[in-house]
What does this fold into?
Amino acid sequence: MNELIIEPTKYSPRVNLSPAGNICIEGRSIVEDSHKFYAPILDWVKQSTCNKIKVEIKLEYINTSSSKQIFTLLSLISENSSIIDVNVDWYYEEGDDDTFELGKEFESETRMPFAFFEYSENAA
It folds into this structure.
């Protein structure tokens, strides 16, 4: 697997997928065409032969179409038979109950272990 890095924009998150099995998505995900933006990410996961995956999702804002793509990403990880160890770190801003609840819903639906981390917007 090759490393895949997508630099952030005003509307899209920074994405870093490493051959070691680390997946990091951070920033804002309010892309107009979420299918197009997330397609290479989903393809990367489909082709992954890693036995262990570490997912870090730290989205300060996510629109509905992007949340569907994140769910698809997590589902693909859950369904990939070569992946035997998965950890998902879900970050949400202090007081952002919607993002926290979205993570809890994804955890329940995918049946993968999530760790939840609340952070302050002013934290360095």
Q: What stands out?
A: The helical segments are 34-47, 64-79, 97-110. The chain has a mean pLDDT of 93.
